[in-house]
Amino acid sequence: MNPLSALAYYRCFRKRLLLLFLPVMLCVMVLFLIQAVIVSSIQLEHRAFVVTRKAYTSIQAKGKPISLDTIAAIRLHENTARVAPCILSHTEITSLLSRIGVRVYLLGDPDMRLLMERMDVSLVSGRLPAAGSDEIVLHDVVARNKGLAVGDRLGSDLDPSETLLGAYTLVGLLEGDALCGFASLENWQTVHDVAVPEEYGILVMPQPGRLAALNQFVAYLPLSGNELSSLPVSTATLTESANRIYLLLNTVFVAVLLINAICVSFLTYLFTLSRSREFAVLNAIGYSRRAIFQRSLLDVLILNLLAAATGLLFSLLVALGLQATFFLAAGRPLTLLSLQVWLPALCVPLASVLAEMVAIRSIFSRLDPMQLLDQDA
Amino acid sequence: MQLDAFELSLVYPVLSGPPVVALDHVNLTVRTGDLIGVLGPSGSGKSTLLYLLAGLKKPSSGAVFLDNQDLASHNDDELERRRLASFGFIFQRHYLLPHLDLLDNILLPVQHNRPQAAEKARQLAGELGLDVDLKRRPHELSVGQRQLVAVARALINDPVLIFADEPTASLDSETGLRVMDCLARQLHRAGMVVVTHDFKILHQATEIHQLRDGRILA
Ligand SMILES: Nc1ncnc2c1ncn2[C@@H]1O[C@H](COP(=O)(O)OP(=O)(O)O)[C@@H](O)[C@H]1O
Ligand SMILES: [Mg+2]
After folding, report:
1. CA angle, corner A347, sides to A33 and A363, nearest 5?
2. From the alpha carbon of B51, which atom of ligand 1 is closest?
3. Which of A155, A249, A333, B46 has a 20 to 30 A CA-CA distance from A265?
4. Would you say the CB of residue A177 lies under 6 angstroms from ligand 1?
5. Where are the domains of chain A?
6. CA distances from B90 to B9, B162, B195 (A)
7. What pLDDT score does A371 carry?
8. Do residues A93 and A331 touch, judged by C-beta distance below 8 A?
9. Ligand 1 in contact with B48 (CB < 6 A)?
10. Cβ(B24) to ligand 1 under 6 A?
11. Helix, strand or coil for residue A256?
12. Ligand 1 within 6 A of CB of B178
């Protein structure tokens, strides 16, 4: 065995190995899992809130009906492909962090298919709601999250805490990136006795690639208090709420990073100091100081990489295990493949390597082998 | 190979009081085949002399020449390389690495061809009368046995210069003589300086000096 090998050293000093290994590994795990939960939650919110808005812009009446002139102006605009009468309702799902509102679009039959196509969602099971019926389709994730299966009923008539007004029967499940649901507009018209649904709400689908231009145009329309829902508006809202979470997260992140780096570098300092006599002997025999120093740095690097890799592997296994046994079935899929999830955890070994290198350097810069050996004489 | 010490002095500054003159204008020459014995009571500067000769410390004045080259003209890297390849140093305090087994301790100076060196290490251990499993660790050994490991470590690289700092201090007289025999067997290719306060072990010496208060007595 190479006399400088850390293996030989740590075989004798297992406790020291653990004291340097475990904190890094645990911090990596903690940060990875926290980050996975938060990113997954925001990702879910993103799918419900932002991805859907990439297909349309909507205006909903608030108090006053939407003016037919406005509707005509939008219909005539060059960037408009289709203006559909549409009532927006929503139902709530819960992530590990928050409640998320998922839009349910009450649409006439051809418009429903058109919007589904534009949102790139499709049926995985069951069928679409029949025109005029109290039927509903929901995204598979939404249904799982709410514990619903095809055939189940939902709505505020059955459960007062439900935000979806009325009573519906779930007849189909959707898949795709966008989280949403669809129900029949004709049914709503019958129940509320409405002849011109356009006055209550419209959904504008843009010409291909013209969403931004359309949104710009709609933003300047006199809406007289009617509610505009568009990609820029919802993106801004989500960004704001995500930033609040990230601020908290960054505080935790920096704290974990610092505490870990301080602890392990302090231990490294003590352990390296306790080895100075050993280094002095090696230097006296003829090992170059530089080689001993570089070897110590390399040891620290390898140790941290191993600890981080172990931590990541463990937490990935834990996350995948939870994903398979619980999260997928519960409609709370974990986002694991995003760089955002891995990045903070990867900073842990980086910070501790740097801090430990500083500790080692400070010892070697003052290491005087002969003085150490003299002390024994 | 020839090592010359010329007017070698080392003065330690002391915070309170006069500086300590550990070595005072010492002249010495070691050639291959020489076994130079240096006798002196403790504190007389024996260890200091060896450190200076081996280039481990720098003299306050005077110089050490290895084959007519001033050691002071070499940088640390060169001195380190030279120590590793051609010097063998037996420290007064053995200095074995606690986490390495005995074999790895003996092989510390070895950089190449370790299997062959391991064979040689076992042979050296036998010659020195070190009758223990070389897989054991230093703390399991008596002080005397550790001394033998330290001797084997100094000899493993076939050094051309051997510095022995009281190599028999922790040994019984019989083992001490065996160590000296083993050292003497290196004389066909090495020169050595053995410092001790035990006159009896120096019967193979080619030259003996008395050291008192850092000075070699005429
Ligand atoms: N690092 C040092 N600082 C100050 N004085 C020292 C140092 N090392 C040795 N000395 C002094 O130098 C003298 C010679 O020491 P040393 O060479 O170790 O003697 P020996 O090996 O013969 O016992 C002693 O008086 C000792 O106290
Ligand atoms: Mg001494």
Report:
1. 130
2. 17
3. A249
4. no
5. 8-45+239-376, 62-225
6. 22, 8, 10
7. 85
8. yes
9. yes
10. no
11. helix
12. no
The residue whose two tokens read 């039927």 is A135
**Predicted pLDDT at B147:** 96
Q: Provide the b/e sequence for B7-29 (b: ≥16 CB within 10 Å).
A: ebbbbeeeeeeeeebbbbebebe
Query: Residues A268-311: pLDDT tens digits?
Result: 999 999 999 999 999 999 999 999 999 999 999 999 999 999 99
CB atoms within 10 A of CB B186: 20
**Shortest-distance Cα residue to atom 14 of ligand 1:** B45
User: Do A362 and A269 touch, CB atoms closer than 8 A?
Assistant: yes
Domain count, chain B: 1
Ligand 1 neighbourhood includes B20 CB (under 6 angstroms): yes
Residue pair A55/A205 in contact by the 8 Å Cβ criterion: yes
Name the residue of B38, B47, B194 to mutate for ligand 1: max ligand atoms within 8 A of Cβ. B47
Q: What is the CATH number of the domain that holds B44?
A: 3.40.50.300
Cβ of A283 and B85 within 8 Å? no
In chain A, residues with a C-beta closer than 8 Å to the C-beta of B57 are: 370
Q: What is the mean pLDDT of each run of 10 residues along chain B (218 residues)?
A: 96 92 96 97 95 95 96 93 95 92 95 93 96 95 96 97 95 95 96 95 96 93
Contacts of residue A285 in chain B, CB cutoff 8 Å?
83-84, 89, 108-109, 153
Nearest CA to ligand 1 atom 1: A374
**What is the model's pLDDT at position A1?**
55
> Strands B191-196, A181-184: parallel, antiparallel or unpaired by DSSP?
unpaired
Check B76 against A288: CB less than 8 A apart. Answer: yes
Token pair, residue B159, equals 């050094």
**Residue A239: pLDDT above 90?**
no
Range of the domain at B118: 2-216
Residues in chain B closer than 8 A to A277 (CB atoms): 95
Ligand nearest to the CA of A374: 1
Q: Give the integer Cα–Cα distance in Å for A237 and A244.
A: 11
Mutation choice for B interface testing from A277, A373, A375, A376 by most B CBs within 10 A: A373
What's the Cα-to-Cα distance from A357 to each of A13, A25, A282, A295, rounded to whole Å? 20, 18, 20, 11
